[in-house]
Write a sequence for this structure.
């Protein structure tokens, strides 16, 4: 029973990690590689994920790292994919996914 609860918490935290990183991946794809903003778009989410891990109770056990790293990277790449898709479809793109979704889909 205890293992099942930990798996559910780990799944929830990894999902939040994934969703939290999508806007940062979107921002990262609009920046020049290895620039300051590119670096920040990768590293700004990390303290929030550390706090999420701490307050959720999953801690920093070794078995949690693969799940959290994969969800972090997938969130970044999905954000990049969304940016590249919107750019290829000739939608207006900026550095903010919220602004772009609003101006291209909701406001129309």
């Amino acid at each position: 029973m205890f293992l099942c609860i930990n798996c559910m918490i780990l799944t929830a935290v990894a999902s939040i990690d994934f969703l939290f990183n999508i806007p940062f991946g979107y921002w990262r794809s609009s920046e020049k590689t290895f620039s300051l903003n590119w670096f920040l778009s990768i590293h700004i989410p990390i303290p929030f994920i550390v706090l999420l891990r701490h307050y959720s109770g999953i801690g920093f056990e070794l078995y949690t790292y693969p799940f959290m790293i994969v969800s972090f990277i997938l969130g970044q790449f999905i954000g990049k994919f969304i940016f590249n898709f919107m750019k290829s479809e000739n939608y207006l793109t900026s550095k903010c996914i919220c602004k772009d979704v609003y101006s291209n889909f909701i406001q129309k």
User: Anything to note?
Assistant: The two ends are 49 Å apart (CA to CA). The chain has a mean pLDDT of 93.
